[in-house]
Amino acid sequence: MDRILIVDDEELNRDFLVHLLNDEFETMVAGDGEQALKTAVDNVPDLILLDIQMPVDDELTYGKYKDYLARLTEGVEGRVAAMIAETMIHKRTEQIKSVFENMLSAVSGIQEQNYKLRSGSATIIEQMREDIQMIVSEISVSDDLSEESENRILNITDGCLKQNNILFDKGLKFNEHVAMMIKVFEHILQKDVLTETDFEKLVGSLALLEAG
Hints:
Blueprint: E1 3-7, H1 11-21, E2 26-30, H2 33-43, E3 47-50, H3 59-138, H4 147-189, H5 196-211
Parallel strand pairs: 1-2, 1-3
């Protein structure tokens, strides 16, 4: 809720404004300039409603007001600097958190893809073994390996090699994507502030992994 400081030497005016604004704003009141400046320094209002015709008793009082105004300025600058620093720290923390969440997701994806490649190769080899075993079982112990059986075995092994070569190429491509993703992560973590472009690169590297 926004805060409004009402400064007026007339109590009736102060009460009227408080009654008018209190439902939608946090109101603070001051009856003179000195009290107003003290309140402003301590609370930093979003808006000040000031009666510019309030009397100033003497030059000494006016000098005090100037001192309080200087304090107010310093206080506001300090608060603004602190808020900016806090905001940057919070933003950086959230960005790092997001990066690591994406990294964990990527690691999980890498493990899954690696498992698929390994199990795929194992499945191909196992299928080749079973196919060759079936051909061998069809051959009589006393018979020699026929040309037809030999060709069937050669076709099976050739098909197995081709499928494994395809998996090998996928593995190489996948490794390249992983290496690129690691470079993106390293680049991002070294930066003080992350831009939208940084996150686009991160998302792009993860998309390549998923596509692979």
